[in-house]
Write the structure tokens for this entry.
Amino acid sequence: MTPPFDYDLLIVGGGLIGSSLALALASQPLRIGIIEAVPPSTQEQPSFDSRAIALAFGSRRIFEGIGCWSAIASETTPIRHIHVSDRGHFGVTRLDAAQASLPALGYVVEVRMLGQIVYQKLQDFPQVELICPAKVVNIVSEASQTQVQIASHGHIHTLSTRLLVAADGGLSLVRQLLQIPTQKRDYGQTAIIANVATERSHQYRAFERFTDTGPLALLPLGEKRCNLVWTVKNIQAPYLTAVDKETFLAHLQQRFGQRLGRFTRIGKRHAYPLQLLRAQQQVACRAVLIGNAAHNLHPVAGQGFNLGLRDVAALAQTLADAQKAGHDLGAPETLSTYTQWRQGDQHLVTGLTDTLVRLFSNDYPLLGPARGLGLAALDLFPPLKQQFMRQTMGLAVRQPRLARGLAL
């Protein structure tokens, strides 16, 4: 006889990726548990701080399919234009939503607000249980089930599940406990993230400005306000995070220029060391890695979260289809269907971001003119530009139902 399970699906990590997967599957006849160390309503929740992220247009469609875009839309600022340049060199690329016949290329939203909306929607589904505060301490994988030991309120509990999903980020404890090796590339860079106010309106433009220390991105966020993602060399980061606000803004002004006039104000600065991390395998016995637990990218071109959300859409459809067909959610055949679906998109996006970082984050004299020619060619050759936009918007790969705005 089939042994009873505490959960059909146990998700470790209650951040945006894990909670979005739970919401995507919440209408299915599944009992779902989310293991999370920090309550989502607290200020300490690392996935819901004041940072902002850019949702690609493809991610908008996924949230439409999940059923929460209408609540998210009013909290977003659309990106209708993107200006890409290389500091100190000629050649620019201008991307426009009208060229893609879309209302926006993407949308900027504060992470905390997005997380609150997803969790509020989860309250409508009693079969989704938040197990919090809790931390995974051991995993025992068997042919018929996976047992997960958690520490909660000073006690150890054992939970059983048909499938364990690791959505616990780049430092994934689940990945470590499953002894899944990783490939890493240390970029020697740190991202400094903050919100800044500008003298001029952004007019719904995002900026990606490549410099010799790494890309500098500004994302529109409300009126005369932008989210800054400034990549610098590791050796520069301590100074730039500690210096007074006026000095920081002067350095930023010198690197970015005057396209938005003067920078007039800056909020709290956060610093994140950057590396490329890829799990050498994304499935184990009755377990699968998604999001940053599977692939942690450089923030150039804003691809990381959007790639993880496409993992969510594909895995949700794979599991829903398996459930409807009476198949085992944790069977190797089910997980193989998912990994075969996702590997092309993941390899392409990780390769694209890694190439951009290595190509543009240096001051080799001969590369400057070549980069300028490349940006100019992309701007002047519509078919190439269209393909680039479709890829970065998440529209160039096989689309699961959620990515077409359809429910499972």
Observations:
- The two ends are 30 Å apart (CA to CA).
- The chain has a mean pLDDT of 92.
- The chain has eleven helices and 20 strands.
- Residues 7-79+105-184+276-362+396-404 form a domain with the FAD/NAD(P)-binding domain fold (CATH 3.50.50.60).
